[in-house]
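hey so u asked for the seq, here:
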Amino acid sequence: MHIRYNAPITLTFTLAAGIVLVLSQTIAPGIIQSLFSTPAPFRTNVFVDYVKLFTHVLGHENIQHYIGNFTMILLLGPILENVYGSGFILLSILITAVATGLSNALLFPNVVLLGASGIVFMMIMLSSITNFQKGEVPLTFILVMIIYLGGQVWDALTKQDNISQFSHIIGGLVGSVLGFNHKKITPR
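ran it, structure tokens below
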């Protein structure tokens, strides 16, 4: 028996975020603010602000934040890579990162966003569409949409916390759109 790097995008993403977390907690305490959180406010003339629209998903405030996100990513990512392919999952992560980063920068210009929770919600919604057939909408997708995204809308309206329910909603919507569009262009 040997250990297999079975889900390269999921595992590389997990390791990269883990390295950023260790660096931020040890020898590079300013690294999250410098490179791995959304800019607040966004400056259109600063190159690093554009980079941070992608890299904010690698930054996490602490180990609990990291564990909360990557437990789900490690659970769903390998299944999704197997179903959709690693290239599609990488593209989905990049699109979700820029969608959550840009929407946060535009709608909440003074709020810093970091973490992979938008990616988690993208994967949750994408996984609920894995058995999508032309002309059908899976009941599991509808229920996940109501329970997860509906819960995030509810929390956004009723709670005052440091959790960006908006990025969860954006991530879930991106996962839904990508899942339905992937299945439309890919023959079964």
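The domain at 8-185 is CATH 1.20.1540.10 (Rhomboid-like fold). The helical segments are 8-25, 31-35, 47-55, 63-84, 86-107, 117-127, 139-158, 165-185.
lmk if thats what u needed
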